[in-house]
Write a structure and sequence with these properties.
With 153 residues, this protein is α+β, with helices and mostly antiparallel strands. The chain has 3 helices and 8 strands. Bound molecules: coenzyme A (COA). The site of coenzyme A (COA) has 14 residues, from strand 3, helix 2 and helix 3.
Length: 153
């Protein structure tokens, strides 16, 4: 299912611009992360933004910091491109280690309502100071990712 999501996102023009990174060990692909573009509604005063989805590391290579390195490298490259906000829906314990914090409290609504028990799974990270303005906004993601099946619905 993750591989299908990646294929669909890479073919989705509404996901552009995207950033796709792989991790390799002895020429074998063992991990992958994809960041795709999102917009914020209303558009005024909001910075270029992306969403991290999906991230996957081969089971034989998990817990070797590969996931963390993919996230860190991706965030560095997005920062260089001028992206200022990165969203993610995922395990809070994992992503908080990598600089993300709950997005709802900062006024960023997910594309679909997040069930109360998963509120903290919807997270954001600012890549440059002063980006978060506490102005309520709804995140609109690529058509492929907007399917409710990806949103704990
Ligand atoms: C989640 C995943 C991407 C992490 O990649 P990884 O390369 O194994 O992770 P790292 O080596 O960077 O980090 C490992 C650490 O994160 C912890 N961790 C892993 N998944 C976690 C989670 N969901 N919540 C909290 N901590 C988590 C590990 O226990 C480990 O902790 P330690 O450093 O104290 O030992 C990988 O396990 C994976 O592909 N899982 C299946 C797909 C998936 O669930 N993707 C969505 C991620 S929310």
């Amino acid at each position: 299912m993750v591989a299908t999501l990646v294929d669909d996102l890479l073919a989705d023009p509404t996901a552009l611009p995207y950033l796709s990174l792989v991790a390799t060990v002895r020429d074998r692909i063992v991990g992958h992360v994809l960041f795709t573009a999102v917009t914020l509604q209303p558009r005024t005063e909001h910075a270029p933004a992306s969403i991290l989805a999906p991230l996957a590391v081969h089971p034989d290579f998990q817990n070797r910091r590969i996931g963390g390195m993919l996230i860190a490298e991706g965030l560095n490259r997005l920062r260089e491109r001028g992206v200022r906000l990165v969203f993610v829906l995922g395990g809070p314990g994992y992503y908080q280690r990598h600089g993300f914090s709950p997005a709802g409290k900062l006024g960023y609504a997910a594309p679909h309502p997040i069930p109360p028990e998963y509120t903290d799974a919807w997270m954001v990270q600012a890549l440059s100071p002063g980006t978060v303005r506490h102005t309520p906004a709804r995140v609109q993601c690529a058509r492929t990712l907007a399917d409710p099946k990806h949103w704990l619905a």
